Amino acid sequence: MARKFQDAAIAGIGATEFSKESKRSELQLAAECSKAACDDAGIDPRDIDGMITFTIDNSDEVMLARALGVKDLAFTTRISGGGAAAAATLYQAMALVNAGLCKNVLIWRAMNERSQYRFGQNPTNTTSYQSGNGTGSLLWCVPFGAMTPASWGALQAQRYMWKYGVTNRDLGYVSVQQRKYAATNPKAWFYEKPITLEDHQNSKWIMEPVLRLLDCCQESDGGVAILVTSLERARDLKQKPVKIVGAAQSIPYNVEVISNYYHDDLTVMPEAQGTAKRLWEQTGLKPADMQAAMIYDAFTPHVLLQLEAFGFCKAGEAAGFVKSGGMAIDGKLPVNTHGGLLGEAYIHGMNTMAEGVRQVRGTAVNQVKGVAHVLVSSGMAGAVLGTA
Question: What is the pTM for the complete model shown?
């Protein structure tokens, strides 16, 4: 029988609490957030037939399927690249549903990144940097002292900051705004803990002169899951369906997932530019059509680079945009309204994807008025979520 092209929609989201000491295995965290996403959607976990996660997620698909009681998987895959995979999981789930290959696709990411291992520390081995994990280029960096994500991110951002006169104090406005959002989000680790610009400037240097402690994302324990199905089916389920209006990915020549300082112009993020070009062409939408944006914020400079890459700001103008209140709830483009990876938790960007869903549903703690479309971005991939 010929397959019918179908629109895809997010029907369910689920998460564990976000902590620094989960006291549970990553498989259990994966099962908990996955069951929560199914419950949110009103879908029996046994009916999941597609599963997508990251190459570096430690939870095995077969074990998770067994834990959930999944009857018969038709498709599984893993996406490389750490946080860059977040929106790419939505892209692939959309494609599976569009093609009629799967009915209920579960996306998950679960980690004990604070209590079990720490991405922010110097590596004790380079096993995870082998080819196939999307981080093979790091084998060229580590022997020369570039050993941590902060060192890679700072080296990437320094040229941009020099060219446009952006200072670390300018970056502080990103952190202050996102911590303001987190302070009113009961699920955020930094709930009721806003910061001032002076707090940011007094935090210790991590990579001088680019990154202070409060420019860096957290190390978190927790799990987040998203359930993708057809828009037609989602309309009959528990929650207001959130349509995946479009999704795209871009990995241009000489662009790396993390150590992204090999391309010709280090003042831009080519992968985000490529994603934006495809996304706007695919959807027929433009930056002005977005009421909010959820942007991967491993480090504060990445927010500025993506604001420019997606066309919300002209080159070199993102810092001024943020300083003037552009990211605020009443600003031109509210950004990371849950607090982001800096303020809520670092679950490799999946909690940021979930916040995009809440904004379209109208259920976010820091709800933007009149949301019809939200951009969610993880740099190398992005999606537009919208009302159905």
Answer: 0.94
